[in-house]
Design a protein that fits this description.
With about 675 residues, the chain is mostly helical. The protein has a domain at about 10-445. The chain has helices at about 1-50, 65-70, 75-85, 95-110, 110-140, 150-165, 170-175, 180-200, 205-225, 235-240, 255-265, 270-285, 300-320, 340-360, 365-380, 400, 405-415, 420-445, 450-460, 470-480, 485-495, 500-515, 520-530, 535-550, 550-565, 570-580, 585-600, 605-625, 655-660.
């Protein structure tokens, strides 16, 4: 009897254990199905929010130089690979981004629709990756509690990722094709963070941990090589070590804390070295003395700190109130600001106060402290601490910098979803209304990018009337579609807002010359030189105008002055060499042409000019050494309708002649 009872108990326990296993399996399958559904809808809504981008064209803000007139797109494959890993085209180093563009060009040629499809696909993938990593962060923060596997964690992570993806502040990165490299960079950054979190899962074997760490480091390196916005990736991993991983928490006093920090830094040494190298390369790529406005790039520390403090609050304010979004945010009056100005002093005080608050709350609210630190770290390269743009801010810089706040938003949504039913329904309804409103705003924002005229008209409408880029690029776009009068007005406006800009003065003078007002064109360039006598580019443009308008003798002095101000000015050496060759000053011409090629060995015009000069010299030398030949009999001249002998001397056009008209 007792034996039968024992058998019955064992059978019941086995059945109960089997049911529990089945319940866990069912819960696991249900959780996976829920995650798949949420991930699908996040990607779908992220793409839908920017679907009008498919109909947008290239715009004349870098797209023309990156795509339409980029000769590298026509190179053979081997030359493309070398160019991608060595070029610093337009002042950026992004080798993996160029490889992606080469693949796109092979598939789509110069049809913008194909490039936009790739951007939308990448944006949708970012939405899914962000949802997965946000869920991982929430589960890690809730480790050891019954809420860790709560379905509301999945829903909260999905809603937060969706709100990030549909925000109109993402428009610039998704729709502007020259900003496309931000997308694969951010995708690799998010995936790298996810791999890093997986590496330190509880009870993970050492070999598996090494594989996940290797994947995280490779993804982080790829993110940096796609775009330098990710160069602070190693520091971001240190923030994760502090929270939620808790790898830096001391266990044996102060010495234990130092040891943990040392090991964490040593572990990331390869990434830190790559990050430092890319910072040096990026700084060298943008190492120009002046902006296109003519203002100096260098600025005192006070000005750079003021820029950074303003940027810290600019993007959260645009996130909360996304109105007036545009491609350029020009400074109000001057290119240099200081912390003593009230608005910038207030921003700086707010940053200091938030840092102190985050430090004081690092134990009670570690998620907030970590998010604030990660936000500052990701934003730092584009905050203005290192100046490389005359703008105060740019929408594209918020794409990566805003990522840490997604996890904070998800935590807030999770808290609301776990309340009573009425609060839960209200929260979901509010998220739906906000998402619908943001999607609508994103659709309208996409419409401003449909072509260059719409883009720059919108920029001027929302307050960028002090922007050289807005007036100058609108002028070029209007001229391209035949609105000559309106274009001329924008050229004049560009010179008014940036009188020290060599490019603005050149385009205005060029338009005056096209109208036949040669004296006015030359006077415009001479006035520009007087306004900025220390700019080599001003003297260079004046020399080009004088050469083009039939005054080559007067062009020699400004060419030489441009070279005196900037001895490494390749174009000035090249064009002066061409002009001297035309005038017969061959020794000096050869010196300048060879100098131009030494400064820029890969410049095709410098190489072609020198080669044609040497060929012309060789032909002249051979002709001078050849003895004259006298024909046996001369035909009797016919005077009827032939050209008179005195007018029968012609000179065939050469590169030298062509370069003296217009380059």
């Amino acid at each position: 009897m007792e034996r039968n009872c024992a058998r019955t108990r064992i059978a019941k326990q086995g059945a109960a254990s089997m049911f529990r296993m089945n319940d866990h399996a069912d819960e696991g399958k249900s959780s996976i199905r829920l995650a798949l559904r949420v991930g699908f809808w996040v990607a779908a809504i992220a793409v839908l929010a920017f679907l009008p981008a498919i109909g947008c064209d290239f715009v004349n803000m870098d797209d023309n130089r990156n795509f339409l007139s980029n000769e590298a797109l026509k190179y053979p494959l081997e030359q493309k690979l070398v160019w991608a890993w060595t070029t610093r085209w337009l002042g950026v180093y992004q080798p993996l981004a160029w490889l992606l563009i080469f693949f796109e060009h092979a598939a789509w040629a110069l049809r913008p629709c194909g490039y936009h499809v790739v951007s939308l696909a990448l944006h949708g993938m970012i939405g899914v990756a962000l949802f997965v990593v946000t869920r991982m962060l929430l589960e890690r923060a809730l480790a050891g509690t019954a809420e860790q596997k709560d379905p509301f964690v999945v829903v909260a992570a999905g809603l937060a990722a969706m709100l990030f993806c549909v925000h109109p502040l993402r428009t610039e990165v998704v729709v502007w094709l020259s900003a496309q490299p931000y997308l694969p960079s951010v995708l690799c950054l998010i995936l790298g963070v996810g791999a890093y979190l997986k590496a330190f899962d509880a009870n993970r074997a050492l070999e598996s941990r090494r594989k996940w760490l290797t994947a995280s480091f490779l993804l982080g390196g790829a993110a940096m090589l796609f775009k330098a916005v990710a160069v602070t990736y190693p520091l971001l991993l240190l923030v994760l070590d502090a929270y939620p991983l808790g790898r830096l928490t001391p266990t044996q006093g102060e010495s234990g804390a130092r040891r943990r920090w040392t090991l964490a830094l040593a572990e990331k040494l390869p990434l830190l070295v790559l990050s430092l190298m890319l910072m040096v390369v990026a700084h060298g790529a943008k190492n120009h003395p002046r902006f296109e406005t003519g203002d100096p790039i260098s600025a005192p520390l006070s000005a750079r700190l003021a820029d950074a403090a303003h940027a810290v609050w600019f993007y959260p304010s645009k996130t909360l109130v996304p109105i007036g979004l545009t491609i350029v945010y020009p400074r109000a009056e001057t290119s240099v600001v200081h912390l003593t100005e009230p608005s910038f002093a207030l921003c700086a005080a707010g940053v200091v106060a938030m840092c102190l608050l985050a430090w004081l709350l690092r134990r009670k609210l570690p998620a907030f402290a970590s998010a604030w630190a990660a936000y500052l770290i990701i934003l730092a390269p584009n905050s203005g601490l290192v100046r490389f743009s005359p703008q105060l801010a740019a929408d594209r810089y918020s794409y990566a910098a805003s990522l840490p706040w997604v996890a904070v938003l998800a935590a807030g949504l999770l808290y609301a979803l776990k309340r009573r039913t009425s609060i839960r329904i209200t929260s979901v309804a509010m998220v739906g209304v906000v998402a619908l409103g943001l999607c609508t705003m994103s659709w309208f924002q996409c419409a401003t990018w449909r072509h260059s005229v719409a883009l720059w008209n919108h920029a001027l409408d929302v307050g960028s009337d002090r922007s050289l880029e807005a007036h100058g690029n609108l002028a070029l776009a209007l001229k391209q579609v035949g609105f000559e009068t309106e274009a001329f007005e924008q050229y004049q406006a560009a010179v008014r807002v940036a009188p020290r800009s060599s490019k603005a003065c050149y385009y205005l003078a060029d338009e005056l010359a096209r109208q036949g007002k040669n004296e006015a064109a030359i006077a415009t360039m001479r006035e520009a030189v007087q306004n900025a006598p220390d700019q080599a580019m001003m003297h260079y443009y004046l020399a080009r105008f004088l050469t083009r308008l039939g005054q080559p003798d007067q062009a020699l002095a400004p060419f030489r002055e441009a070279i005196r101000l900037d001895p490494g000015f390749c174009e000035a050496h090249r064009d002066l060499g061409v002009l001297l060759a035309v005038q017969g000053q061959n020794d000096e011409a050869r010196y300048h042409l060879e100098t131009a090629l030494q400064i820029r060995p890969n410049d095709p015009e410098a190489r072609s000019s020198l080669e044609q000069f040497l060929v012309a010299q060789e032909n002249r030398h051979r002709h001078e050494q050849q003895p004259p030949t006298i024909p046996a009999a001369l035909p009797s001249p016919k005077v009827s309708s032939q050209v008179p002998a005195g007018n029968a001397t012609f000179a065939s056009p050469t590169l030298m002649d062509r370069s003296c008209t217009k380059r």
